[in-house]
Write a structure and sequence with these properties.
592 residues, alpha+beta, two-stranded antiparallel ribbon, 11 strands, 55% helix, 12% strand, binds flavin-adenine dinucleotide
């Protein structure tokens, strides 16, 4: 059985040493002192290790079962879901007006990490509900909010997001699901949606589906898409549950991973739906909560890598194979543990330096969301909008890469189900696909976000990096190992942006052939920035007399590794971008 221990100390380090949350001038942040966040994170970690982690393998092995139109979740999920509800974990950052606790999003994110690391499939039931809650909260009428939100905050009713259809996933303009207006102001929704996460299950009394559909007679394509609330059971005016609505599960998908989450084909047969937001503005309503949803998927990426890493470290210390080339380190044993070998070290350092950098990047993203929402800070809003495809695309690509790297530490045992390492890789894989496949994230970054508001946000990002370097250039301890590599990587990124400006206009393929490289480059620069800041914070803690010197010294050494061994990837990405579209587009389709 795999292990999992919540990295509470690392989480606290990011919240306090790096982001200094309790010192921020953001409403609600004044309560986030070390003691409070420590208690929350410790408790979340306890729930994760004691309740959710033991169910991870159960969920993977049992999966969900469809019987007589009802989906049964794996044994133990129902009890665990009740514990999440009674523990108040579902309502942390929700609006107090609807029963939420009103905590900042960054605090919610810090609690989410152990939940996702310990059982990603399970946590998705709540995660999807949170997404649907946010959409209704942002776009619902008062009556809709009063009717649906309190139960969703408690997860008495769960939520889903229904975009995908058999013939359309990325290109939602092709959507066929129809909405027919009724005299009472409601709509009849008819069509089929596929791959709907948590579409049907036995964890809640009602399921509130958010469904994209086209109102008959509306504009063609994406401009004719509207968003609807379609409850599994109609909700009466007094809040009680009424008749069963015309929505049913057709089947559940057999899939590579996240077996504990039911991925459903949903059939809508003249189901009663209520317009959410304005007619034909469905995509806009969906996009409101995209930053949060995509940050949540990015978190899935590194959270799976974190779990896989913890196991790889334990195995590397335990497994005896070969001798250290510099002399036996376990002379009384038959061989040395794997961890003595430089190539195993390289692998583990890759994983560790990614995961810790990714945690900082994700929590910084959550903090920007808080600044945007709670301070109405337009710059923070622009910055998180720019970062969103990077958070999603880079962290999930790398999360999967390092989940398989952790498998590699186990040799053949990593490939055998008994050890549990394949589940991390299989579960992490989906995060690269859903919530907008990663190729489409790169497209969004280069095709849309770079130029958003006249390129203001990307310029602000470059300024931020430049300012940090300038402000710290006299800091000898930081300069060679952190600031110089960051400067070089940031220069590469700017050169790539310049290449797009000069060559993308002539031929857009020149920009789009390099978009994936650019997304990875930007991910590296963001993690490089995070590591430089974390190193500075760790040095300050040591200078301030922190007692846990090993912890802070380890942070600095891990950061040095990232800057030396990972960040130079930007040069390779730039070289590829600079070759443009010629080699990418050289073949006729028939020659593939
Ligand atoms: C387990 C699971 C759970 C899911 N949960 C949900 C859910 O809850 N709700 C929901 O609505 N959907 C859900 N999905 C669907 C998921 O979001 C889609 O699969 C995803 O958005 C991609 O759509 P598609 O599969 O139709 O691929 P396509 O759109 O056909 O894309 C195929 C490939 O082509 C690339 N591509 C497409 N267009 C372009 C372009 N213009 N330029 C460059 N590349 C392009 C994509 O990046 C992708 O790699 C889920 C899927 C799975 C497998």
């Amino acid at each position: 059985m795999p292990i999992y221990n919540a990295p509470t100390k690392d989480i606290q380090f990011v919240l306090h040493d790096l982001l200094r949350v309790s010192e921020q001038d953001i409403p609600g942040f004044e309560d986030l002192d070390r003691e409070f966040t420590g208690a929350v994170v410790e408790e979340a970690g306890k729930v994760a290790t004691e309740v959710l982690h033991p169910l991870n393998v159960v969920g993977d092995k049992e999966g969900c079962v469809l019987e007589n139109g009802v989906v049964r979740t794996p044994k133990g999920f129902k009890d665990a879901f009740e514990q999440m509800k009674t523990g108040g974990w579902t309502s942390m950052d929700c609006d107090p007006e609807y029963g939420g606790q009103g905590l900042p999003y960054v605090m919610y994110t810090a609690a989410q990490e152990p939940f996702v690391s310990s059982n990603m499939a399970f946590n998705m039931y709540q995660g999807l509900t949170h997404g649907a809650y946010s959409a209704i909260h942002a776009h619902g009428t008062d009556a809709q909010k009063q009717k649906f939100l309190p139960k969703m905050v408690e997860c008495e009713w769960t939520g889903t997001m229904n975009l995908t259809e058999p013939h359309c996933g990325t290109d939602l303009g092709l959507m066929r699901t129809k909405a027919a207006p009724q005299e009472d102001g409601s709509y009849k929704i008819t069509g089929q949606k596929i791959f709907i996460s948590a579409g049907e299950h036995d964890l809640s009394d009602n399921i509130i589906h958010l469904v994209l559909a086209k109102i008959e007679g509306g504009p063609e394509g994406i401009k004719g898409v509207s968003l609807f609330i379609v409850p599994k059971f109609i909700v009466n005016d007094d809040g009680s549950l009424g008749a069963r609505n015309g929505v049913s599960v057709g089947s559940i998908e057999e899939k590579m991973g996240i077996h504990g989450n039911s991925t459903c084909v949903m059939n809508y047969d003249e189901a009663t739906g209520y317009l959410l937001g304005s007619e034909h503005k469905g995509m806009r309503a969906m996009f409101t909560m995209m930053n949060e949803a995509r940050l949540g998927v990015g978190l899935q990426g590194f959270a799976q890598a974190e779990s896989a890493y913890q196991n790889a470290v334990a195995y590397a210390n335990d497994r005896l194979q070969g001798r250290a080339v510099t002399g036996a380190e376990n002379p009384n044993g038959p061989a040395d543990p794997l961890i003595v070998h430089p190539d195993i070290r390289r692998n583990l350092m890759d994983q560790k330096s990614f995961v810790e950098g990714a945690r900082a990047f994700t929590y910084w993203g959550a903090y920007l969301i808080d600044r945007a929402h709670r301070n109405d800070d337009k710059d923070a809003d622009g910055l998180i909008s720019l970062m969103t495809p990077v958070l999603k695309g880079f962290l999930t690509d790398k999360g999967f890469e390092y989940a398989t790297a952790a498998q590699q530490v186990y040799g053949g045992h990593g490939y055998i189900e008994e050890w549990g390492m394949s589940q991390y890789a299989r579960d992490a894989r989906i995060a690269m696909i859903y919530e907008g496949a990663n190729g489409v994230q790169a497209l969004d970054l280069v095709g849309r976000k770079l130029a958003q508001d006249g390129g203001k946000h990307v310029m602000a990002f470059f300024d931020m990096v430049k300012t940090f370097i300038k402000e710290n250039e006299d800091n000898e301890a930081l300069k060679t190992d952190f600031l110089d590599p960051l400067k070089a990587a940031s220069k590469d990124l700017q050169a790539a942006g310049m290449y797009f400006m000069q060559n993308g206009m002539k031929n857009p393929n020149n920009a789009l052939s390099g978009s994936y490289d650019f997304m990875h480059m930007m991910g590296h620069v963001c993690l490089g920035l995070m590591w430089a800041r974390m190193a500075k914070a760790a040095m300050e803690a040591l200078e301030g007399g922190a007692s846990d010197t090993a912890f802070y010294e380890t942070k600095i050494a891990t950061g040095r590794y990232y800057m030396a061994r990972q960040l130079p990837a930007t040069a390779m990405h730039l070289a590829r971008i600079n070759t443009g579209a010629d080699t990418v587009m050289a073949l006729d389709a028939a020659n593939f």
